[in-house]
């Protein structure tokens, strides 16, 4: 008898619990005002296609004749971010994501970049910002859009001014200087 009661109450408990998992939930409130902050970052990105341990690899290209960077070529990246422009400079993070060659004009190489720039040391260790922007090969200084972030950079938006610090036209290896301005909370 007692067992039945325990079983029955267990069933009622489970039945009472079960619908919670399937419940649609929504709430809209006015959040308290927050103080916006601005952070500036300066570093170098190393996009290395050559050698035994490249940081950028082609993952797809269209079946048409043309160079390996012609329209439609897609690359995956895990590019180190460093303090200085030298390949041996201290690593402070990495940019992981993709870029795709996006211009049909062969004279105007452009890559649209989709990458998460994460920091692995210092104040912003564990935080990252998300960049989503086109990056043309000219002018020398380009502006890229930053559309979000994680950790200290949650809800960030901002922009980056970048310039090639080194480019090997044979290999495609590039070292790029970044001046980033982030608005976040
Ligand atoms: C690439 O295109 C050529 C010419 O259209 C075709 O013969 C070949 O089968 C294609 N290769 C692949 C992998 O689709
Ligand atoms: C960065 O954070 C990770 C994870 O919390 C930690 O293991 C690592 O030691 C930190 N690195 C530095 C340089 O602070
Ligand atoms: C980044 O900022 C530094 C310091 O203001 C400046 O010397 C450098 O030219 C800037 N680089 C870019 C790509 O904006
Ligand atoms: C570019 O890469 C090629 C092939 O590795 C190398 O022979 C050449 O010296 C490099 N040029 C520069 C400026 O680093």
Low-confidence stretches: none
In the residues, how many domains can be counted?
1
CATH fold type: AOC barrel-like
Structural class per helix/strand content? Answer: mainly beta
InterPro entries: Allene_oxi_cyc_Dirigent (IPR044859), Dirigent (IPR004265)
Organism: Hibiscus syriacus
Pfam families: Dirigent
Subcellular location: Secreted, Extracellular space, Apoplast
What is the structure about, briefly put?
The protein has one helix spanning 2-21; strands at 37-47, 56-60, 74-82, 91-101, 110-119, 128-136, 141-150, 157-167, 174-184. The protein is mostly beta strands and 185 residues long. It has one domain (34-184): Beta Barrel (AOC barrel-like).
How would you characterize this protein structure?
By secondary structure, this protein is mainly β. It has one domain: AOC barrel-like, CATH 2.40.480.10. The protein has one helix and nine strands, in the order H-E-E-E-E-E-E-E-E-E. An eight-stranded antiparallel barrel has the order 1-3-4-5-6-7-8-9. The chain is globular, with a radius of gyration of 24 Å. One 2-acetamido-2-deoxy-beta-D-glucopyranose is lined by residues 141, 161-163, 177, 179. Belongs to the plant dirigent protein family.
List keywords for this structure.
9 strands, Dirigent protein, 185 residues, mainly beta, Allene_oxi_cyc_Dirigent, binds 2-acetamido-2-deoxy-beta-D-glucopyranose, AOC barrel-like
């Amino acid at each position: 008898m007692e067992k039945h009661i325990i079983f029955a109450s267990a069933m009622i408990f489970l039945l009472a619990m079960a619908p919670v998992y399937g419940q649609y939930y929504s709430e809209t409130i006015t959040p308290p005002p927050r103080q916006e902050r601005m952070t500036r970052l300066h570093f170098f990105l190393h996009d290395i296609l050559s050698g035994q341990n490249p940081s950028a690899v082609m993952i797809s290209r269209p079946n048409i004749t043309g160079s390996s960077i012609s329209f439609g070529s897609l690359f995956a990246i895990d590019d180190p971010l460093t303090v200085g422009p030298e390949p041996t400079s201290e690593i402070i993070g990495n940019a992981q994501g993709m870029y795709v060659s996006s211009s049909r004009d062969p004279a105007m190489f452009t890559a649209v970049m989709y990458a998460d720039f994460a920091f692995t040391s210092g104040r912003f260790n564990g935080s990252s910002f998300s960049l989503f922007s086109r990056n043309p090969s000219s002018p020398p200084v380009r502006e890229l859009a930053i559309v979000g972030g994680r950790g200290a950079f949650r809800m960030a938006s901002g922009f980056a001014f970048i310039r090639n610090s080194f480019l090997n036209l044979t290999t495609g290896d590039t070292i790029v200087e970044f001046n980033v301005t982030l608005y976040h909370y």
